[in-house]
Amino acid sequence: MITEITQDDMLKWDLEQLRSFEPFWKLILGNKALLPLLWQMYPNHENLLPAYFDDPKTELTKAGKEDEFSKLKHFVSKPLFGREGLGVMVSKNYTTYDNFVKQTEINFGVDTKTNEKLGKSVYQAYVELPSA
Questions:
Q1: Which phi and psi angles does 50 have, rounded to 5°?
Q2: The pLDDT value given to residue 2
Q3: Contacts from 59-68 at CB under 8 Å and sequence distance 24+?
């Protein structure tokens, strides 16, 4: 599950001999795949933001909900196993939405042996936090 975390200092240790302070089951609860799953189970819930496994524009277009995409101004891309904000990208920081999606697709690089894309992101609607 953690093979996509390539920049973590934990990977230099032999995981069989590693004694962890936190149980590994927390990787499951910290998995960002829960965000789109919850959104699918409880769409439009007041405590959830729209979240998708793939590019929201593509997903909503396939579902015939282009109007929902136009209502959402910006999105955030989050790595499935990201921690402490590492690898989070916000679409409003890019000149176009397509540039944002393209960058999230190559966010983790590619495997040098198999040439496969490393890592996966989920997309969630961006909402500005209220200021005090």
A1: -55, 135
A2: 52
A3: none
